[in-house]
């Protein structure tokens, strides 16, 4: 497998952009918590016209469904269709029907993070891309990362199926250098962007059981926009994995050693990529 690897200790900056896939969720979660820090959002207040809170959305405990396994969604992506309007997506997923009471279960939900993206943009008073730049990237000294909006934005990037439209990632798809993803996670978890109480909340996992079959996770959990837990090697790791048509990405921090590493690979072998990132220095 043709992997690209980068770390906080040993890799020179590389300006080549790659899709960040669901590592975008960590950036959105960071922006949401920065708005909590600033008093513009509140973790445990119910959302307007909904029974779930910001914390529930961040931790995939809202009860909202996901669209990732929806057969008609997968077929439309494979055909190269234009993305559906968000209202159409929500209708097809029966998104008003919660799958469990908020806080009483766990289910990975891209729809939940679509809601979060809207909440962040509204609270920040600017489009999501501008909010991420102001609240996350600029404070951490990161350049060269942006939200992909059109097929042309993805043209020429590695690990992208030709003609794929980033609009199919409803919460937004960040593209940027892999080293910038390392800087984001490392700066977030070792710096002072968020106050200690919010950073502790972000890193506190809801445990999901384990081990995970065919993945290098012994005891996985999910914090607030962070995949957290014990790897099969016994290391504690915090970060996020992601994948889409054509490639996979993994960005993780090892707190015991103060090392952050990221990897990107064409294809679908997430297990091999995560294992490589977990041991990379």
Protein architecture, described:
With 281 residues, the protein is α+β, with helices and mostly antiparallel strands. The strands form 2 sheets. The chain has a 7-stranded antiparallel beta sheet with strand order 1-10-9-8-7-6-5, sandwiched between helices. A 3-stranded antiparallel beta sheet has the order 2-4-3. 34% of the residues lie in helices and 18% in strands. Helix 1 (23-37) crosses helix 6. It is built from 10 helices and 10 strands.
Sequence of strands across the biggest β-sheet: 1-10-9-8-7-6-5
The number of distinct β-strands equals 10
Q: Largest beta sheet, briefly?
A: 7 strands, antiparallel
Topology order in helix (H) and strand (E) letters = EEHHHHHHEHEHHEEEEEEH
In a nutshell, what does this entry contain?
The protein has 281 residues and is an alpha+beta fold. It has helices at residues 23-37, 54-58, 71-79, 86-92, 110-124, 128-137, 151-154, 178-190, 196-203, 270-279, and strands at 4-7, 17-19, 146-147, 174-177, 206-207, 217-222, 227-231, 236-244, 247-254, 259-266.
Blueprint of the fold:
Elements: E1 4-7, E2 17-19, H1 23-37, H2 54-58, H3 71-79, H4 86-92, H5 110-124, H6 128-137, E3 146-147, H7 151-154, E4 174-177, H8 178-190, H9 196-203, E5 206-207, E6 217-222, E7 227-231, E8 236-244, E9 247-254, E10 259-266, H10 270-279
Antiparallel strand pairs: 1-10, 2-4, 3-4, 5-6, 6-7, 7-8, 8-9, 9-10
